[in-house]
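Researcher: Let's do a round of design. I'm pasting the structure tokens now; please hold your answer until I've finished.
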């Protein structure tokens, strides 16, 4: 499988302040680990800035303009709940969303393959008109809507295994039968959404909350018995992954007890699923993961599986 890594140095310019969990070191650690010999065949591309048209499919014009004006000349300012911005934050956000659109273009192009977007700020908490939880633009939703508009993809699924529920993605997908959102996450935990009874206006949402003590057995069981069968039934033409690695046992923001092997396992399962329905087309997008060393190890495990995923 041809696997492309999309990232951009501008994403390092988002610096929400000393001690903030979403620190520039996260991507620096990921890039460093992906320099290892295992990844010599990884295709590497820079993610361009997103276009206004691409952004407006998920976010109304007034919200986009508010974000574009939000970066301070110096220091850190607060844009909304849990959202601090620095002088480089807007450029980072533009390249994060743009990288996902470019990854969509790549995997839906002539050469079948998959892609991983090493970007920040993350996106899955961002709603159409509201930044939340370290997220400015909903990168994966912008990418999904780009796949539909620019490539005519009719059935797009997002699997979100970040430890937090992706309230923003769920809300943007809620009434749309062509978009499916599935999530495993710790509950109770921020942002408080993602209960099992939240099923989407078109029956197109699947939430599989995990108790704070859960680890590999509970995660793998719910994936095998509930989430993967639901994704199979949806038969996505494009599979997208909100790849947050903060369900790792050593992550400072949550309590789940997953390990690198669990992320490799779920990636292999999703690779098989994409081969069955989507010609192997996967766009995976970094969300959370706040222990940089563990984040890098989990990302390496994830990308290694993407590189050996079947074409379909
Ligand atoms: Zn998270």
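Researcher: That's everything. Go ahead.
Model: Designed sequence:
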């Amino acid at each position: 499988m041809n696997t492309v890594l999309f990232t951009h140095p501008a994403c390092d310019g988002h610096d929400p302040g000393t001690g903030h969990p979403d620190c520039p070191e996260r991507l620096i650690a990921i890039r460093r680990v992906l320099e290892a010999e295992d990844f010599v065949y990884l295709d590497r591309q820079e993610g361009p800035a997103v276009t206004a048209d691409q952004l407006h499919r998920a976010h109304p014009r007034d919200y986009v303009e508010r974000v574009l004006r939000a970066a301070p000349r110096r220091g850190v300012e607060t844009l909304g709940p849990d959202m601090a911005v620095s002088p480089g934050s807007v450029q980072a956000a533009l390249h994060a969303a743009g990288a996902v659109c470019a990854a969509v273009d790549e995997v839906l192009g002539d050469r079948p393959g998959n892609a991983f977007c090493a970007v920040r700020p993350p996106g899955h908490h961002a709603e159409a008109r509201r930044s939340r939880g370290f997220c400015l633009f909903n990168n994966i939703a912008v990418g999904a809507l780009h796949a539909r508009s620019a490539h005519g993809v009719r059935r797009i699924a997002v699997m979100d295994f970040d430890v937090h529920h992706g309230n923003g993605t769920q809300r943007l997908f809620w009434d749309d039968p062509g978009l499916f959102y599935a999530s495993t996450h710790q509950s109770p935990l921020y942002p408080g959404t993602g209960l099992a009874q939240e099923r989407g206006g078109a029956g197109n949402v699947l939430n599989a909350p995990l108790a704070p003590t859960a680890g590999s057995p509970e995660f793998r069981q719910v994936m095998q018995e509930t989430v993967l069968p639901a994704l199979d039934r949806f038969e996505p033409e494009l599979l997208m992954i909100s790849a947050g690695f903060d369900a790792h046992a050593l992550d400072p923001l949550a309590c789940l007890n997953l390990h690198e092997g669990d992320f490799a396992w779920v990636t292999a399962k999703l690779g098989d699923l994409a081969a069955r329905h989507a010609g192997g087309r996967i766009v995976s997008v970094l969300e959370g993961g706040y222990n940089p060393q563990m984040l890098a190890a989990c990302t390496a495990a994830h990308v290694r599986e993407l590189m050996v995923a079947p074409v379909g």
